[in-house]
Amino acid sequence: MLRISKMTDYAIMVMVELHTSRGEVLSTAALAERSSLELPTVSKVMKLLVKADLVQSFRGASGGYSMETDASDISVAEIIAAIEGPIAMTECSVEEGLCAQEAICGLRGNWQRISVAIANAMAGVSLAEMAQPVKPAASPLHINTLNA
Fold it and tell me: The domain spanning residue 26 has which CATH number?
């Protein structure tokens, strides 16, 4: 099963919280409380989001974090990349020389195609869209590999 990490899920939750606060500067404690996450987790996530220039940090007694970029201009792919690095299905999809099987395996190009398709799908969903409630699908997408 392909999944994003909990840290990435939390990053999206915190980014949605910043989006809904409309430019307000929020401390890590306020973000943790509003998103029902642990303070150390929010601190770690915020450092990564600042490093990726997705949020701004402000020092001082009334310091904290805000998001000055419009949520419709931030993609889910950007948030994932900020927390996890490049979106790729396999290590060889990103960089040569990371796999011991590379010399005898001809799958790299196909894995790159799949990785690009997934990255493009995630780039097509904005933070603003993620902030809008959507009813869950009636049943999750399943690909039945037993009958293939």
Answer: 1.10.10.10
Does 37 map to a domain?
yes
* Positive or negative torsion for Cα 94, 117, 121, 135: negative
Whether 145 is covered by a domain: the verdict is no
Please name the amino acid found at residue 41: T
> Is 36 domain-assigned?
yes
pLDDT tens digit sequence for 41-69: 999 999 999 999 999 999 988 889 999 89
Segments forming the whole domain that contains residue 82: 6-130
- 139 belongs to a structural domain: no
Instruction: Please report, for residues 47, 50, 88, 147, the alpha-carbon distance to residue 55 in angstroms, rounded to integers and kept in the order given.
Output: 9, 5, 24, 46
Q: How far apart are CA 79 and CA 132, in angstroms?
A: 17
Q: Quick check: helix, strand or coil at residue 25?
A: coil
Helical (H) or strand (E) element with 40:
helix 39-51
| 73/53 Cα distance (integer angstroms) | 13
Given a cut of 80, is residue 86 above it in pLDDT? yes
